[in-house]
């Protein structure tokens, strides 16, 4: 499907809103329409360190939205539900089985920006060129994302018609500006001013 994403091409250049193509969800994937996304120091850190030759990249790892479609193997997540997106974990290693999913032995493989674990990309540019996505299993700086069942958390099972993320939504001292939805997270979130302009209003 055609979506809009905030592409990062170089550490010294601003994010660029561009049309890209997002794959249809695979068996274990969840298509989510973004309603809000945090802008974390982690995103900016990765943006400053990632090699331009490996991009462009779509970052963002604190997404929240509405499920639009699920793969045939996804259980317990339904279209229309509100969800927040977390980081991925394998669920099979000793740490995951003990409930310490932050120490998953495949954490880096599953959450670094780039491709799926099998080497395929979820995002593509016009002409077929790949876009490095799946950042923390989501790349939430976009109008829609593909997440996985293991990092999608249902927070309200009541179907909703919440509007999409507005242009230039920001948080400052707990108030949302120019937006109906705004996500805050991290240290000193009450004074964050993250700009999240990549989803146009309907």
Automatic annotation (TrEMBL):
PROSITE patterns named among the record's database cross-references: ADH_ZINC
InterPro entries per the UniProt record, alphabetical: ADH-like_N (IPR013154), ADH_Zn_CS (IPR002328), GroES-like_sf (IPR011032)
Keyword Zinc among UniProt keywords: yes
UniProt keyword Membrane present: no
Cofactor(s) the protein requires to work: Zn(2+)
Stretches of the chain forming a coiled coil according to its record: none
Keywords for the protein's UniProt record, in alphabetical order: Metal-binding, Oxidoreductase, Zinc
Domain Alcohol dehydrogenase-like N-terminal: 27-151
Family of this protein: Belongs to the zinc-containing alcohol dehydrogenase family.
Protein name: Alcohol dehydrogenase catalytic domain-containing protein
Source lineage: Bacteria, Bacillati, Actinomycetota, Actinomycetes, Kitasatosporales
């Amino acid at each position: 499907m055609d979506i809009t994403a905030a592409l990062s091409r170089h550490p010294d250049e601003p994010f660029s809103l561009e049309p890209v193509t997002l794959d249809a969800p695979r068996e274990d994937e969840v298509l989510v329409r973004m309603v809000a996304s945090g802008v974390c120091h982690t995103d900016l850190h990765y943006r400053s360190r990632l090699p331009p030759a490996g991009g462009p990249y779509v970052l963002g790892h604190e997404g929240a939205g509405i499920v639009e479609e699920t793969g045939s193997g996804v259980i317990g997540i339904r279209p229309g539900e509100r969800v927040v997106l977390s980081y991925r974990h394998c669920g099979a290693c000793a740490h995951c089985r003990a409930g310490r999913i932050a120490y998953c032995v495949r954490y880096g493989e599953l959450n670094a920006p780039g491709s799926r674990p099998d080497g395929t990309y979820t995002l593509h540019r016009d002409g077929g060129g790949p876009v490095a996505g799946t950042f923390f299993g989501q790349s939430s700086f976009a109008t829609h994302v593909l997440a996985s069942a293991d990092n999608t958390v249902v927070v309200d099972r009541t179907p909703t018609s919440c509007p999409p993320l507005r242009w230039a939504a920001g948080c400052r001292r707990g108030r949302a500006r120019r937006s109906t939805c705004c996500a805050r997270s991290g240290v000193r979130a009450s004074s964050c001013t993250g700009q999240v302009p990549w989803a146009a209003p309907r």
